[in-house]
Write a structure and sequence with these properties.
Keywords: Membrane, Transmembrane, Transmembrane helix. This protein is mainly α. It has 19 helices and four strands.
């Protein structure tokens, strides 16, 4: 930068556009890592070992990469496990997988920060959206820091990738690669295909659409040729699903403790979650009415995605523990946390943040809001928004926006520490490898069975040759 160059110069803006996301990536990763207890970091979770690692040993990295599991492809999780198994010793595999997953989720958060420029007006709102992958209250319970649930974070990226302004081939191609990887990892990205029509004439967006279509099509073909096992229990009723949405992803946006939610419902009734959901629905309707076009699309995408994740997952994975409309007091006390609750709540929180952005814009606290004649871009009559009435409306929007921002920030802060995650009690991976060393010393050509979370039915067979090689270091 030369002397006398203006602070708003293109060079300065270019440098900041690179440095800020990188710094934010590191900050989000650190925040996500600090939320995990040492026990959680050192525990390998479910498919990470029993499926991804085990099949890698049997089929090789290339052979396992596009191998179906439960009717779907899981390309990015398999890549993460493959990288983790090759860059560190076998006894540190669980910690390495946890670290890589935290980094990937943080990359999603940093990408959200970049992609919301030009759509979300408030810097604070953009920051809160970027922090969601790391600070979603229910995250550490099951979906954070394991490869098996990375697909939720890649899916969270999709609406931002499809709604961001794209004015260059480089951005379009990079996002095309990202949406392709997301599609090859999560079939539910097809829920966002209607967003293709937003600015479809912009040719720079075509690589993004193409990546999404290829990834989604590969998933559809996989599930048609390798269908998942049919449900063994009856599907829940619509009432179960709707009430479950209020109880799980919606209430889970405010607390990580589903048993606490169940206790409150058992004592006071379901209205304690239904009434706030109704209020949120009214705010959403107002936001869709008053927001700018980009804000409306983003808000609608958040609401639609939260519903699609919850209702789709519940329909495909029926469980007697999801029959919420038929719960008695005892069953409410046993209210359990489901992984799709955390995934859905990311979009619920995202909707609150977008609502805050709309309110702050209308309140004149960020770019947009009011012009000399009254409210910008319709929604309220210009002639009515004058004098003291106009000032009152401005302050009402400001208060609502500030309260929503504070509410999300407070939810993040109060739920930062989670010490009852489903992996908190292990079994701890390094201890399992250490125990296997003596068995492998007796039969070096065999495989060692190492227990992993969440229960005794989950284990992975590790070749003793790998364990012996690590023990000899």
């Amino acid at each position: 930068m030369t002397d006398g160059e203006p602070t708003g110069s293109p060079v300065r803006r270019r440098v900041l556009s690179i440095v800020v996301p990188l710094v934010l990536w590191v900050v989000i990763a650190v925040a996500g890592w600090l939320r995990l207890t040492p026990q959680v970091r050192n525990t390998l979770w479910a498919e990470d070992g029993k499926v991804f690692l085990d099949e890698q040993y049997r089929l090789g990295v290339a052979g396992a990469l596009f191998h179906d599991y439960a009717g779907y492809l899981h390309v990015v999780p398999r890549l993460v496990v493959a990288v983790a198994s090759h860059i560190g010793p076998i006894d540190r595999l669980a910690v390495t997988v946890s670290a890589l997953c935290v980094v990937v989720a943080a990359a999603v958060g940093a990408a959200v920060w970049v992609l919301t420029a030009g759509v979300i007006r408030s810097v604070v709102a953009r920051l809160l959206l970027a922090l969601i992958p790391a600070l979603v209250p229910l995250g550490p319970m099951e979906i954070q820091a394991n490869a098996a649930n990375l697909h939720w974070f890649l899916m969270f990226l999709m609406p931002f990738a499809l709604l961001t302004p794209v004015r260059s081939w480089s951005k379009g191609i990079l996002l095309g690669i990202a949406t392709l990887l997301a599609g090859l990892t999560e079939i539910q990205i097809v829920a966002f295909f209607p967003l293709f029509f937003v600015g479809i004439r912009n040719r720079y967006r075509w690589p993004i659409i193409l990546g999404s279509v290829i990834g989604g099509a590969a998933q559809v073909v996989t599930t048609l040729t390798h269908p998942r096992a049919a449900a063994s229990v009856p599907h829940e009723t619509v009432a179960d699903m709707v009430l479950g949405y209020a109880v799980q992803p919606f209430a889970g946006s405010f607390t990580w403790s589903m048993p606490a939610v169940g206790r409150v419902i058992a004592e006071h009734g379901v209205w304690v979650v239904v009434l706030p959901l109704v209020v949120a629905a009214v705010l959403t309707a107002l936001g869709l009415w008053l927001g700018a076009p980009g804000q409306r699309w983003m808000l609608g995408s958040m609401v639609w995605a939260s519903a699609a994740v919850w209702f789709g997952a519940v329909f495909l994975n029926p469980n007697q523990m999801l029959a919420f409309a038929h719960f008695d007091a005892g069953q409410w006390l046993g209210n359990w946390t489901f992984r799709y609750s955390a995934a859905g709540s990311m979009y619920v929180i995202g909707a609150f943040v977008v609502l805050a952005d709309i309110a702050l814009t209308r309140g004149g606290l960020v770019r947009g809001g009011f012009d000399r004649g009254g409210l910008v871009r319709g929604g309220l009559d210009r002639g009515a928004a004058t004098g003291r009435h106009r000032v009152g409306v401005v302050w009402a929007f400001r208060v609502v926006g500030i309260l929503l921002v504070l509410g999300v920030a407070l939810s993040f802060a109060l739920n930062f520490s989670v010490d009852k995650a489903n992996r908190q009690a292990g079994p701890y991976w390094d201890q399992g490898i250490e125990t296997s060393e003596s068995r492998c010393a007796q039969t070096p050509s065999a495989d060692a069975s190492v227990q992993i979370a969440p229960g005794p039915q989950w284990a992975v067979s590790v070749p003793c040759a790998i364990i012996d090689q690590d023990a000899a270091r």
